[in-house]
Every structure is written in structure tokens, then in C-alpha cells.
Amino acid sequence: MKDLHMILPTFAPDFSGVCSTLFEMEGMVVIHDAGGCTGTFTGYDEPRWFDEKSCVFTSNLDDVEAVFGTDNILLDKIFAADEFLNRRFIALLGSPSPMVLGTDLNALAKIIRQKTGKMCISFNTKGTVFYDEGISMALLELARNFLPSGRPQIIPNSVNLIGATPLDLTNRHNIDVIKELLEENGFFVCSTWAMGSTLDEISNSLSAQCNIVLTASALKTARYLEKVYGMPYLAGSFSGVKGVRECLRQLEALLKGKEYRKYRPPEETGGRTLIVGEQLLANGIRQSLELDFNIGGVDVATFFNADPQYMRPGDCKEMDEDELLRRIRSGIYNRIVGDGLYRLFDAGLPGCRFVEIPHIAVSSRLSWESSVCPFGKSMLELVTCGEEEFYG
Amino acid sequence: MSENIYHLRISELDRNAPILGTKGKAVSGACLHYCAPGVGGWGIVRIALLVPESVMLFIAPHGCGRHGSVASMQLGYRNRIFYLDVSESDIVIGAHIDRIDEIVEYILSHLPKKPKAFLICASCIDDLLASDYRGITRRLTKKHGIPFGEVHMNPITTNSSTPPALNVQRSIYRFLWDPPQEQKQKHLQNINLIGHFSPVNPNSEIYLLLQNAGFENIYQVSDCKSFEEFLKMRDSSRNILIKPFGRLACADMEQKLDIPSTKKYICYRAQGVAESYRELGKFLGCELDYEPYYEAVLKKIESHRKRLSTLRIAIGEGVNGSAFEIACALAECGAQIAFIISSAVADYEWEYIGRLQKIDPDIPIYTSYHPTMATIDRVKEEADLAIGFDAAYICQNAKLMILDSNAQHYGFEAVAALLDGIDEAMSANVSARALLYSRALVV
After folding, report:
1. What are the φ and ψ backbone dihedral angles of A237, each rounded to 5 degrees?
2. How many angstroms from the chain centroid is the CA of residue A82?
3. How far apart are CA A304 and CA A306, in angstroms?
């Protein structure tokens, strides 16, 4: 049944995507809501919330303010907080109630800019779309508002990583693995948008030679940076050994301005593989399965948005629970890779192997302590051990 | 950032402060709210599903269902709740309302057995749109032959006179009187305990006291094994409200079912418990023989007094009961109160504040939600023990005692549980973070 969640939890919403992206950016982030949306982000979509500090607040909207449209109450709260917090910028986010009320967040942001003299960015988040759209919005606003007008001197063999949040990559260790893979191969990582870098590092990131896009929600920003600053980009794949090698060759070609011909995937032999997850991360896993294991017939499916340029025939975007169930029960897949919660769909399919790779935007705190790393060599162990462990 | 964390001294709490909904007098003026990791509670969905053998359809933008759906997986009731995502276009044309019949039929057809009751939960947006869930549930009740009830998870009403925490209990007990039934004779030997979530601890003396007073059947929704057993609560002769959240439900039952009620909130001061039982006896028209339990607990307090007098204790707002009352109970036993967390002071708490002001007028009162809290890892006060996750979060060197709504103590047993719990916590070494996230608290 369309739009009905019978098995899985509902997924991380757009405001969580924005907050997650801005978490380390030294701003004051205000969700205009009654508290529940903010509690969802802080308690269920942000693994860093207990151990790290970030100024994310709820406006504590109530029904009287909503009905009478007294936006000055919200503004006064923001001005008062800004006086003693004095953060570098202010971000104002919507939620379902302001959406219904038609609150003009852009106008409010303009008033805040005029009164405080600070950058204030508004995000028309609604809670009706998924986190990836929120990440996409927030990355783009970082690029639009915090980068200088021209590029400084370019550092040879340097890159930015764009699209990193715990909602897709779980934790900072996983980012460090990607960085190490690049540094071991002679590349310098200027900045990571937006996990593990400061706002200043991101502001200075135009000195990188190119951008590596980690997740599909960063593609819009990468294309913006290409259009405005002429920075080339590529979709990164950091799973496995040969999979990473392929990505590094592609990167070298990009930096040298050479054409790169992608490998030809192996043919399907004895059953297909389904990877369920964020599109580009799933593509990276597919690349590893194809090159490290010579496994063919790999489909990527996602509940979220996917970029057509990076889809293959058989891939699927914006699916619902019924579509996943239909695929799993179709009997054509003998291996499923994805969040542990997808096991709930797997009952009654003997012989189907499962490789667990957490996706926090789906399973939230149920897997945010997970130490599973799908990058580099550990991907090889995951597939080998996972197949043994989860053989039905 | 400022290092000055907003707080008051207990002597500065103001009886004339603005009212914060039904919570009482606000501790801080209007401000942005920080959502500290240690705050939260059971959540509306989990409370509503205390109705035995019920299922729920939650209708809202998916962002609203996120915390409750993950919590339901953590706590093992995901198979009783179904989430319908509402899109922006649904909201504009009301399509989500039009789909309810179809979705309900789909759910009923996919359940292994027909539920005894069906809850439909709406969110803030349907409140703002004035969607008629009462009419929908009445129609569905007739159509499917099982009672449908409406629930509202609408934090936008938190500061109103009918906040979600009170309203959800009205929704639970509405099944007792809506649809209206022919009034049966009240069973004089039946009595209800209202307002709490987990069943009162079986070691509480209240069971024996009530049984000895002639109340053979003591009902509480979380202890009912079946929907039929839950419905027997409508025939009880009395309600005892043991936590404030059931206040509106009790008022409804008084009006609709002619069940009188009395407020006897959980407390931890032995003298307060004794006074409570004296008054309860008057309400029930009998004397409750609580003296032996009172004497036993006074002895227990004496045996703990020396230990308590060496402890600095912080008390959070997330405790099961009043933070001020607990602080008062402990301070009167010799403990030093390091700080208290409170967002508002309820009318009944001023008595304890008065007592605490006499003991130590400088006790700091923090609010978890004030934006200055976002700037610190810890407050400057040191404590040996923090009661409640919110207190432990800002005092991370202290030992943690949880004392939340997952365990419901009552009467002198609650006093004993507090004292024993302190001993246990002081000798334990637990990770507040791991424990906190295992509790599936919801804001």
C-alpha cells in the first residue's frame, strides 16, 4: 500500500538532513516547530548529540502563536539567544506546522539578517520529504553563502569530499577511512562537507583541485561548484580494494583532464544481488562486488532520490516497502546488501544471503553504535563473513 | 559563547511567574528551547498503546512518525502500529483523510487476528486543519464492529490547557464510555489506579491496604491482560489518580461514568505518604491500616540517614514524581541537594519548595531547555549522585539513578525503592549514554 509503513520505521526527514549537515558549522540552527521535530533530530537522527555540542533549537511553537501568526515571538527568541550565543550564522528551518500555516521563512530570515547583521539562511523544510533533500539544500546553501567569489591558488592533487553526514556514513571513523585511502595514494583532502571540517575549512575549500561526491544529495552542490567555479567532480567509490583502485584511476584521469573509460561489469552468474541504500554508496559497493568478487547482476534500489546519470537498468529509486518486498520475494536475488532492518523482509527465503551495512537514515539509533565500515578492505571482510554468517 | 548558564536559586522561584500550560509557573521566560539528550518520556504512541489488544494507525508527515516508529521497534510493539505518510499535496486537498477507510481495511486484512480496539492518531497539522477525526472514528466503529478511538500527537498544544500528555489519557479511557453503554451497578469492591504507565510495583503496600479495606479488584490499564478486562474499569466505584497526567481522564470518568476520584500523587517523603493514606481512607470511607508500613520505613530511613548525609545529590525533571518533592525527601534525610532541574513549578510543589528554601535557599534550579545549556558539558556544581538522565547529563561524574516511569513505585514502597535505589546506584558503574538510548525516550 502506497505511503504505508507496515514494517520499517519512517525515514529521516528533510529537517534532520539540514541539521545534520549544519551540525558542525558553528551556526545557530532553529527549527520552527513545537519541539517534536527537533526531538526527532536530536534523539533519533543525530548520533553525535550526546557527546558533542551544537546549537540546534526548537522555536517551541504553540497553538496560540500558530493561530494568531505572531512571528515576532519567534524573532524575539532568536534575537535573545543570538545575544549570548553569538554564533557565526543563523539557520531557520520549517516543519509541518509552519508549512500548513504558510509561514514565510524567507521573509523572517531577511528580518533576522537586518536586525543582527548576520547571515541568516532559511530552509523550507516540511517533514513531508526525506533527509536527502535536506542535505542537498544545506550543502548548496553552504556553497552559495560561505565561499569567496573566486578560487585561490589550487593545491595539486587535492580534493574535497562532499556529502558526508552520519545519516549516510554512520560515523567519523568511516570518513577517516576514506581520507586515509586518498592520502595513502597521494591526494590531499582539503575539506569534508560537512563532517570533520570547520566552516573556515569549508570556506577555504576552493583551493582543492576537484570535488568527490560521496552521496547523491551532494550532486547538486558539486554541479553548482562546477558551473560557478569550474571545479570538476566525480562520484566517489571507496568500497573494496579493486573498487577503490578503479575510483582512484578515474580521479587521476579527471585531474589530468583525460577521458576515462569505465570497466565493463561481469555477467550475472547464478542469481542477482540487490543493494538497498543510498545511491552512490550503494554504487560503490556494487563496484567492489563486480571488481573484487567478479559478481555480476547487481541492482541498486533506494527508498530515496537517485540521480538518473548514476542509475543502471534494473536500479530503482523512491521505492516503497511493497516494492522492496516484491523484489525480495521475486526469488531472483540470492544476496541482499543493506541495513539490518531489511532482514525483516527476508523471512522465508532460504538460501538468500545478507550483508548488513547500516543506514542511519533508516534504522536510526538501532544501528548508530555499529562499527561496520563499508569502505576499503573491510568491505571484503563484510562480504566474506556476511555471506557465511547470514546464509539462510 | 557565554559561560553564564541560566539558572535561579530556589529562593528566587516566583509564584507570579507566567504560566507554562498545565505544568505550572515557568522557571524561565519565553526562549528558544534546547533539547538536551536526557529529556523525553514515554511518548503519545506508546502511552496510547497501553490499551490492551489495540492497534494504531498513525497519520502524519513521515517526520512526525520517525521517533515513535523507531522507539516501537526498540521496545517491541512495532507490529501494533502502522504509519501513513502524509504528503504536502495530501494536506492541501485532504487526500489523507479520504484514504483512511481504505488503509484501515488494508491493515485489518493483513493482521493475523482482528484487534479489539483501533486507535487513529493525528498530528499537529490535522489540528490546524480542524480535521474531524471524531466523526471518522465513529463511522469506522459502526462499519467494523470494533471500537475506534482518536489520539492526538500534537505537541503544538503543549502549552494549552489540554496538552498531549493529558489528552492521550482521555483518549485511552474514552473507550470506557464512548460509545455510551447502559450504566451498570458499580462494583463497590473494584477500584482503579489512574495516571501512570507501568503497573504499580507488586511489592507496594497499597494493594494490601486496599484489599483489606474491601477492594478486591484493583485495576490499572497497563496491568489489564485483555480489552475486556480493561473495560471492567468502567464499573469500578472509585478512581485514585496517582500521577497528574490522568487528571482530565478522571474528570471525564466522573462526569460520564459517575466514578468519583481523588488525587494521591506518588511521593517519596514518608510523612507525605502517611498523610496521603490518611486522606485516602477518608475518601474511601474507611481507615487504612498503614502504620506498620510507616514504622518500617521510618526505621529504614534512620538506617540510611548517615550515608545520605555524606551525599550531594542532583535531581532531574525526568524522574517519576516531583523533583522538588524528592529533593525535599532527601534533604530532610540529611542529603545535600546539588541542584534541581525544572521547567515549571506545579501548584502542589510550592509546599516542598517552601521546605527546601528553609533548608538551603541557594539550591540552584536549572532548566534543561534554556539555550545556554547548549554551551556546556556540565554545570559547575559537583554531585555524587544524579537522579534522572537529564541531571546525569549535565553532571557526568555523578553516579546515575534512573527512577523513571518504566518502574512505578507507590506508597512507602516508593520511599524504600528510592533509598535502596540510591545504594544500588552508588555501587554501580553504568553508561548513562547506553542506558538512555535503550529507554527509547521521546520528546
Report:
1. -135, 110
2. 29
3. 7
Cα distances from B325 to residues A78, B131, B332, B346, B401, in angstroms, run: 34, 41, 10, 11, 16
Q: Are strands B344-345 and B217-219 parallel, antiparallel or unpaired?
A: unpaired
Q: CA of B362: how far to CAs of B81, B280, B311, B316, B353, in Å?
A: 47, 35, 17, 17, 12
Q: How many angstroms away from the CA of B385 is the closest CA of chain A?
A: 19
- A262-312 per-position pLDDT tens digit: 899 999 988 899 999 999 999 999 999 999 999 999 999 999 999 999 999
CB distance from B94 to chain A under 8 Å?
Answer: no
C-alpha to C-alpha distances, A168 to A46, A171, A307, A361, nearest whole angstrom: 11, 9, 16, 7
Question: With contact defined as beta carbons under 8 Å apart, do B413 and B203 qualify?
Answer: yes
Per CATH, is A158-256 categorized as 3.40.50.1980? yes
Among the four given CATH numbers 3.40.50.1980, 3.30.470.30, 3.40.640.10, 3.40.1280.10, the one describing domain A272-389: 3.40.50.1980
B1: nearest CA partner in chain A? A85
**ipTM score assigned to the predicted complex:** 0.95
Retrieve residue B67's grid coordinates: 521517533
Region A14-129: CATH code: 3.40.50.1980
SS3 content of chain B, % helix, strand, coil (to 5): 45, 20, 35
Q: How far is it, in rounded angstroms, from Cα B253 to Cα A81?
A: 44
User: Which one of A37, A101, A124 would you mutate to disrupt binding with B, by most B Cβ within 10 Å of its Cβ?
Assistant: A37
Alpha helices by DSSP H, B82-212 = 88-93, 95-98, 100-110, 124-128, 133-144, 164-177, 206-212
Question: CA nearest B87 in A: which residue?
Answer: A128
CA of residue A26 relative to chain centroid, distance: 19
Cα A105 to Cα A63, A99, A110, A128, B213, distances in angstroms: 18, 10, 9, 17, 61
Give per-residue pLDDT as tens, B345-397.
999 999 999 999 999 999 999 999 999 999 998 999 999 999 999 999 999 99
